[in-house]
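Check out a protein:
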Amino acid sequence: MADIGGKLKDLARQMETHRDGLVVEQREACCRLQALAEECWSSRPLPPACRSLQLLMLSSATELQASVEVVRPNAGSATVAMVVCAGRAEAVVKCRGENAQKAAREECHYLTAEALGLSSVAAPCVAWRVRLGTLEASGDAHTVEALLSQQVKAVLEAAEGCCPASMWVSVEKCIHVSPDSHSLRGLSSRLGNKFGCVDLMQAYFSSPDGQRIGGVPLLRDGSSKQNVSDADICCLVRSLDVVSVQKLCLLACVVLQRDGGPPNLMIAEQPEYLESMAQWQSVGEGPFRLVSIDATRILGTCAVDGLRLTDESDDNGYAAYWYPACIALPQAAEVLDQKLAEEILGVDPLSVEQTLIAALESAPGAPSGREEASGPAKRLDRLQEVLRSADRGTITARECCFRVVPSWCQDASRADLGPLPMLAAHIRAGGSSEAWARRCWVRRQTPAAISLCAVAELAELVAVRLRPWRGM
């Protein structure tokens, strides 16, 4: 940083000397200033998980046995580039335009999560400027970045006939269903796509009920082992770790998540359980957690009571948002974990604000981040006020979110989250995975079959109600 400071002083002296000089000299000074800004940006402090993604981009593609595959993870989403090293997907790269604004926000999502102690439910991510077609001349022709540059350039030229000199991208850590793809068992082995990862929407679309409503499962390898049943979906949602879902809810309200639907929630096993609970590892059916990705619509200066719920896939309105799916999960309706509450109360809102200001204002070409950074600090302060309230021992993560972001409470009954609210109610009522599978089966059958299934479900409901009386 001292070297950059010296370069800035030298540039300032030259600009003072040539202040009445030619326009070309002014342009040259601006170019040098931009280069210094990018040098400063590249050396910014980052968490270790984000720094690893930077190092990945600069590493030798040959040594890592790296390849890049352009895919579409969901039918309505844009294409992404999967960076695969030695057969394992390591990063997901997404084009974010010719300025750093979107990519910087995604990076700030993880920075905020780490500052709050919630990094386990956010994917590590870095903003990166990919040079298109100039790496060969700079001596970096064999890096992962160069490999990626070739693919991005080819995609842009095929779609638009040309491409800019550079493109900002987000480099996000690939979230795998299991940390060990070679020992997948049970539900974990059926959930993952060909890269070993899957989001909540694609998991549902892989089930018979998901395909009934027109869902298209993508990137599956066609193996019979990957058949996901309706009962599997119920088992998955039931086995989500309670504290991890609550963390996801609190993070969503602090960053003001406006695009937290099922496609942006990746499924992953809980690593601490895999280490300590052999019975979970043996059956491969949980517990799981959800990890937030693709956080481009966060922060901003939107009023928490002025958001506008939308169901349009391409709504670019500033206050438009898609309902955060984490709030609808059954775990969000459980009493907030007291240890988690204590950890959130121990975070200084001012330190979070300063972290975000530094990150947003150092991004080349990004707008001032002071107003955007003040929002999360205010919402964190409000969340802490809620956690100090008299009903702290009974309040749920969902209620915390509603008190911090009133728009979410107002729109709860209008949000379109598919079968998730119905499934959550089924689980909260004590319904089994088998009963859920029968309900899904009913929706695909004739009226006569529906009657038979209704009798079976009624019998199970009676059995559930009688359980407390057994043994008396």
